[in-house]
Amino acid sequence: MDQKLSDENYKTIEAFALSKMSDLKSVSHNDYHVIRVRDNAFKIAKLLGVEERIDKNLLATICMLHDFTYSVRKPNIYTYIFEGRIERRMIRSLLKRFDIPDETKEIIIDAVFRHAHSFPFKKLNKKHGLYTKILQDADTLDFFDVSRVNYFLTNQNKSFFKSLRKAMANALLRYGKNNLGLFLNYPVLAKTFFENPSMKQKDRFHYYEYGINNSETLLFLPGYADSGLMYQKLGRSLSKDYRVLALDFPMIHDPEKIYDLTSLTNFVDDFVKELRLTNFTIVGFSSCGLVAISYTYNRSDKVKELILLNSVPRFILSKVNRKIYQFVKPFILLRPILFIYSRINTNKTFRKIMKLPHTSTFTRERMRTYYYSATGTAVNLIGESVFARFKKIKVPKKIIFFKDDTIIPWERYQRFVEKLDCEVVVFSEGLHADKRIYWEKLKTLWLKTPKIEFQDVSIEKSK
């Protein structure tokens, strides 16, 4: 195709779209949805053998913008019926900001205008352009994504009408999946999309990238119930000087599997091999800082520096308590227990009464939706100790703490941390990545910005 979109234009549009969609709670229209649709579109292009006929930046841009309506309008019947028309008006206005040829703009506008209502109304675009057909099929296939289906089915109120709606939705989903080819511009995808083994390795990884042309690389790992999107603002800030990669862990995409430290370490290793990363800085947040330590210990030849954010090599400091925890862990990992715990632990009233640490709405939603995979993985990680491995790591190491963090309290871990053979930096406020100032202060680790108050802790080197 002659129509192309520059890397610069795509990255700007992607960052803008994700920043708008990230505030939406529903997995049917939020940032995770548009990213899944983009990945689906790339996979469709490969399966159909049309990769040479499309521009990947243009296709990705179409996917990023296809549900932009829901960033400003609430999902309701009016929005659903007139989604295409609203979308066309909004995208036409938005694209005026960019130096994009008019013909390319019309391809984007036409695709987002026509993408809706394939399922269950069979309103297809078989006589329209390649981009339009790929987007619609990518969006339709995401309708049957397991995380989206699970979210819908587990977030219904317990009234009679909600239960009836849930039963009807279940029947409709079964019908759609059994007759998927009827709702696709390319019916062959109904047989090949979910069964193509050559795509599995690539599809394992969900990640976000900023500053793709920079040579110095930072790899960020999120917390157990978070996504790489938690780093999006930091990534954009650092993108002028660094290539920033923020990886999703698999437990927020596969709700039926609990992971442990070894499997997550291997996951990171596979990702590094897939992208052929070398001489990079790895940054691990909270409980998944243990994964960063484990990976660095195994592959120190790849790592330039190890940084822990609100994390330590050992969360349960007492040896006796660790033994007790290992004894009760199999009981905690039972599915009913994880379900009950997730509901209690994410209840606002309960947390307020018990004066539990603050958690973001996004994290609470993840803890509820992925109660088995995400919370179960956290249970596995909390009981781990990588203290011995941390001491043996020779690359530069740094631990970042925030004094007001109530989840990983500085007061509890101060004596332990100050005896580690590494650099320690303690900021005055930021909580557990829950304040805007948290990210502003993290910028000072990599960028030359106006001085922000922080405290360098005196370090007692271990002998």
TrEMBL record:
Pfam family, one: Abhydrolase_1
Protein name: Alpha/beta hydrolase fold protein
Entries under InterPro entries matching the protein: AB_hydrolase_1, AB_hydrolase_fold, AB_hydrolase_sf, HD/PDEase_dom, HD_domain
Alphabetical list of Gene3D superfamilies matching this protein: alpha/beta hydrolase, Hypothetical protein af1432
Entry's Gene Ontology molecular function annotations: hydrolase activity
Keyword Hydrolase applies: yes
Keywords, in A-Z order: Hydrolase
Top-level lineage group: Bacteria
PANTHER family, per database record: MONOACYLGLYCEROL LIPASE (PTHR43798)
Species this protein is from: Candidatus Woesebacteria bacterium GW2011_GWA1_40_43
Domain HD/PDEase residues, every copy: 26-153
